[in-house]
Amino acid sequence: MEFERIDAVAKDSKAFTDKQTKASLYKTVWRWHFYAGIFFAPLIIFLSITGGIYLFKPQIENYMYHDLYYVQQGQQKISSTEQIHEVKKNYPHAKITGFTPSFAPDRSSEVEIMVNGESISVFVNPYNGDIIGKLNENARFMAWVKDLHNGELWGGTIGNWLVELSACWFIILIITGVYLWWPRNRKSLFGTLIPRINLSKRNRTFWRDMHAVTAIWLSLFIVVQLFSGLMWSGVWGSMAHRIVDPISGNPEGDQPWEKYAFPKSTIPTKEIADVPWAAENLPVPESSPNGVKTISVDKVMQIAEKNNVQPGYRIAFPDGETGVYTIFLDPADVYPNRPLPWAQQTLHIDQYSGKVLAKFAWSDYGALGKLISLGIAFHQGEFGFISQLFMLALTIGIIMIVVSSVIMWWKRKPKGKLGAPALPENFKMLKGVAVIVIVLGLFFPLVGASLLIVWVLDYFVIKRIPIAKQWIG
Q1: How confident is the model at residue 417 (pLDDT cuts 50, 70, 90)?
Q2: What distances in angstroms separate CA 144 from CA 154, 253, 271, 327, one per listed residue?
Q3: Which class for 269: exposed (0-12), middle (13-18), buried (19 or more C-beta within 10 A)?
Q4: Can you tell me the distance from the alpha carbon of 104 to that of 336, in angstroms, rounded to the nearest whole number?
Q5: More confident site: 248 or 136
Q6: Based on the number of CB atoms within 10 Å of its own CB, is 78 exposed (0-12), middle (13-18) or buried (19 or more)?
Q7: What is the spatial distance between Cα 298 and Cα 170, in angstroms, rounded to a whole number?
Q8: What is the mean pLDDT of residues 440-465?
Q9: Which of UniProt's keywords are assigned here (predicted)?
Q10: For the residues of 423-457, what is the DSSP string, one character each?
Q11: What is the distance between the alpha carbons of residues 383 and 381, in angstroms, rounded to a whole number?
């Protein structure tokens, strides 16, 4: 009997310890979730609003610049060389940097020029060569929205880091949120998968369900959206490029032009053209000067058609004697009749011989390259108007999640205090959490840096200021 009593006490002690561990873990995760949500809520709402606007870039620009984009359909288009010649006559000191051929019977052509360090698009009637008007690329409304969204406009590199940091922490918010939401002993669908909505009694339970249930239904789509957005970020995006590039070529892992015996530069393609994501970091090959005249843009267009590049492509002109013509199609830039993501292509053409020095199409992408490119297309709503509406609904859902969390916090916040969740009682049982923190810090470098900064502030500042310590809790 004594042994049975000892065994029972041991079991009770173990059960108590397990319960204590789970409670400490729950409080730690909740505390993470709380602080990340409080600090990044304003920026997440801001990014959702600007991203929601940018989703409809094709429709908005089509409306704003309708008089520049559209022309009266004629009988016969003049050659692209003649169209560019008309621009040269009107801008004799300008440098021609690019050309977008008219891709529909009623669309204008677009000649990109550089004047006094500014990039300007000149719109030309393809039927008679008349100059319709011009547009400073940096003055486009959607370029302004894009720079707001990525942080460049209001913070430069630091702004971009803050946007990246908020996206990384949002992913952690989703992970910790799923842990906190997990039903455990709750068996009812209401409050778990179905919100308990009572419009006449909008208490904390109402806002909790609006927050948790909405988030759990949208969580997978939000994570895809966040990771695809991170592909453009300065730190994590650069890391992703280094991982993807070696396998983004053909199945053997070679670069797509290693079969071409032509010299290659060290310049990444993104520095000469706004190509699709998968082609951004690929080195630009070089033309071989041989005393022959540069081929015409009409010849370049014939090469594009021969390689089955769909209408809506753009042509970047050679820069210097070893520069190349770059043909690229990014479906995101085409409206209406936008091609699907797998139509994207990037070609580099020798400016003298017209030989294809590099051809990088969807079939050349590796599995991960295709997956990321699809994620980016999903992020920008490139699968048609329905996908734009879906992404808009997703951004509205994110705003609802954040706003409901702020209201929920405000309702429970003690007067004069931040109202942070209490610290766990037993830190010794949380070694696993420390490992998770280290892993997340390594996977998201800016998260690791932010955690280090917070720890330094907490240890050397907040703990030594009683008022701040009491306010934070």
Answers
A1: confident
A2: 11, 38, 20, 26
A3: buried
A4: 9
A5: 136
A6: middle
A7: 48
A8: 84
A9: Membrane, Transmembrane, Transmembrane helix
A10: PPS-GGG-HHHHHHHHHHHHHSHHHHHHHHHHHHH
A11: 6
Give the residue ranges of DSSP H helices in 320-384.
Answer: 367-379
Residue by residue, DSSP assigns 183-194 as -TT---SBTTTB
- Most confidently modeled range among 67-81, 413-427, 440-454, 455-469: 67-81
Task: Check pLDDT > 50 for residue 253.
Answer: no
What dihedral do alpha carbons 69, 70, 73, 79 form, nearest 10°? -10
**112-131 pLDDT, tens per residue?**
999 988 999 999 999 999 99
Given CA atoms 333, 339, 343, 348 in this order, what sign does their dihedral have?
negative
Residue type, 103: F
pLDDT at 188: 77
| Strand partners for 110 | 100, 123
Task: Count Cα neighbours of 106 within 13 Å in the Cβ-side half-sphere.
Answer: 7
pLDDT tens-digit readout, 356-382: 998 989 988 888 888 889 999 999 999
Both tokens assigned to 222: 């939000």
CB neighbours (10 Å) of residue 403?
A: 15
